[in-house]
Amino acid sequence: MSDVGKAWSGRAAPLAGGRPLPVPGIAALLWLLLAAAAVAWWLSSDMPADILSYEEDIVFLGIQHIELVAWAGGLAILTGVPAGAVLSRPTFRRSAELILQAFNLGTTIPTLAVLALCMKVLGIGTVPSVFGLWAATLLPIVRNTYAGLRNVPTPLIEAARGMGMTPGQVFWRVELPNALFVIFGGIRTALSICVGTAPLAFLIGAGGLGELIFTGIALNDLPMMLAGAIPTALLAVLVDFGIGRLQIHLVSRGVNPLR
Questions:
Q1: From the CB of residue 59, how many other CB atoms can be counted at a distance below 10 Å?
Q2: Ramachandran angles phi, psi of 14, nearest 5°
Q3: What's the pLDDT score for residue 58?
Q4: What residues does the ABC transmembrane type-1 domain cover (predicted)?
Q5: Given CA atoms 68, 105, 87, 157 in this order, what sign does their dihedral have?
Q6: Which residues of 143-157 are buried (b: 16+ CB within 10 A; e: fewer)?
Q7: Which domains are assigned to the chain?
Q8: 20 phi and psi, to 5 degrees?
Q9: C-beta separation of 125 from 205 below 8 A
Q10: Which of 107, 65, 68, 71 is nearest to 210 (CA)?
């Protein structure tokens, strides 16, 4: 294999003297240098002060952003988990994949197009925005719920039936607890998508941090754009971290690989 091939494979490529060239280490060093340069530029400029000048707007629009995510994400959980559970039942196993493709439309179609369709039908404001974000974030929850319940080991289900459990008891006491870790994974993905796409709701009159982002782009105002983009990114990280902690603590130790 050539030196280029070894470098791309992530292994150490030998130098002329026989000493290895640690490619991952060099990549990490380059990223560190770039980060240090970015921090130095940030601290030496007026950018932090310019961004903080939008503090009141960040707080007000951030609350709107959180409300949009809470409504859309909450509705996605309330509808996606039951839908995935129903599709996992033996009655729907033949048609489950076909039905999942219908849920996939909200993800396949660009979110902006979904919001535009919602605006055409429901008008402008919060309601069409929540509906559009709900459609865009529904699939991960439905698919993970379906996959988690379908992949519960068959011997566990048969053992529960052999103990005399009813179908309802088998679902609530055996299937759902064993699928909960996978379901939480879908919820984490869905809510992260929801936070990241919620700025688009500004374009149909719902407010949120997208107001700072798109207004900053239109005015070529970098501090204004960053005043919306940075809180959005931080909010996505916090939501993912928070759901991850719930996933660790609420899922039983026996079926939780993180404990």
A1: 10
A2: -70, 140
A3: 93
A4: 62-243
A5: negative
A6: bbbbbbbbebeeeeb
A7: 56-250 (1.10.3720.10)
A8: -75, 150
A9: yes
A10: 65
Q: Give Cα 34 distance to the centre of its chain.
A: 27
| Joined tokens for residue 116 | 């535009």
3-state secondary structure the chain: CCHHHHHHCCCCEECCCCCEECHHHHHHHHHHHHHHHHHHHHHHCCHHHHHHCCHHHHHHHHHHHHHHHHHHHHHHHHHHHHHHHHHCCHHHCCCHHHHHHHHCHHHHCCHHHHHHHHHHHHCCCHHHHHHHHHHHHHHHHHHHHHHHHHCCCHHHHHHHHHCCCCHHHHHHHHHHHHHHHHHHHHHHHHHHHHHHHHHHHHHHCCCCCHHHHHHHHHHCCHHHHHHHHHHHHHHHHHHHHHHHHHHHHHCCHHHCCCC
Cα gap 80→49, rounded to integer Å: 43
Q: Which residues of the chain have pLDDT under 50?
A: 1-2, 4-10, 12-13, 15-16
Q: How wide is the angle at C-alpha 209 spanned by C-alphas 199 and 50, nearest 5°? A: 135
pLDDT digits (tens, 9 = 90+) for 132-180: 899 888 889 999 999 999 998 888 888 988 888 888 889 998 899 999 9
